[in-house]
Specification:
InterPro entries: Glutathione-S-Trfase_C-like (IPR010987), Glutathione-S-Trfase_C_sf (IPR036282), Glutathione_S-Trfase (IPR040079), Glutathione_S-Trfase_N (IPR004045), GST_C (IPR004046), Thioredoxin-like_sf (IPR036249). With 234 residues, the chain is of the alpha+beta class. It is built from nine helices and four strands, in the order H-E-H-E-H-E-E-H-H-H-H-H-H. Strands 2-1-3-4 form a four-stranded mixed beta sheet, covered by helices on one side.
Length: 234
């Protein structure tokens, strides 16, 4: 098992290819950030399904890699200095893989930080707000008699779509002509909002023409199409 044998998670999800990046994930909006990035970069990796519906992300083995119990997480057997590197948090994984490959993040310092700020915008705003909207629109929250929480998250999600729509005005991608980790971070969440969360109408999604066109461009990318399905429950 090479150097991966030092990681307890490798006992529950044994690697068949220990020389490849090990991805522990599920194709949720956060999980697909890692799989899309890995597909886009062409890095060799091995995906392991962590079924959050079976609480597998809270097993001792997974918690040894991510004490926060959330997917995705990775182990790169060829990390800095040739040593294995374990990482959790999807934003950190995107940044690490971008730096490792020199892809999907600008080399210019100012443009690099501009890209990172839009990754943080997704992490801090789009993800949490869209996720809460999904809970109150589709899952247990929909049965709560008080509809003010749903209204709050509908309004905030609509506002965030407006922010994104404004940024995309005159741009193909969040950073202009260059597809980047800012797009990779955000595509899965916007797609999930209008599909799995069934919120297309209540957020008036089709009124955000720049976002609609951007998502269509993103979903047309073969690596995005593959990444959205990796790994998924059978």
């Amino acid at each position: 098992m090479s150097q991966l044998s030092r990681f307890p998670i490798a006992t529950r999800w044994p690697p068949r290819h220990p020389d490849r990046i090990q991805l522990y994930s599920l194709n949720t909006p956060n999980g697909v950030k890692a799989s899309i990035m890995l597909e886009e970069t062409g890095l060799a990796y091995e995906p392991h399904l962590v079924d959050i519906m079976k609480d597998e992300s809270h097993t001792p083995e997974f918690l040894s890699l991510n004490p926060n119990g959330k997917i995705p997480a990775i182990i790169d057997p060829d990390g800095p200095g040739g040593e294995p590197l374990a990482l959790f948090e999807s934003g950190a994984i995107l940044l690490y893989l971008a730096d490792k490959t020199g892809q999907f993040i600008p080399a210019d310092a100012a443009r690099r930080w501009e890209t990172i700020q839009w990754v943080f915008f997704q992490m801090a705003s789009i993800g949490p707000m869209f996720g809460q909207l999904g809970y109150f629109n589709k899952f247990a929250g929909k049965d709560i008699a008080d509809k003010r929480p749903l209204e709050r998250y509908v309004n905030e999600s609509r506002r965030l779509l407006g922010v994104l729509d404004g940024r995309l005005d005159g741009r193909d991608w969040i950073m202009g002509d260059d597809y980047s980790i800012a797009d990779i971070a955000t595509l899965g969440w916007v797609n999930n909002l209008i599909t799995f969360y069934e919120a297309r109408d209540i957020v008036q999604y089709d009124s955000f023409g720049n976002v609609v066109a951007w998502l269509e461009r993103g979903l047309a990318r073969p690596a995005v199409q593959r990444g959205l399905m990796i790994p998924r429950r059978g």
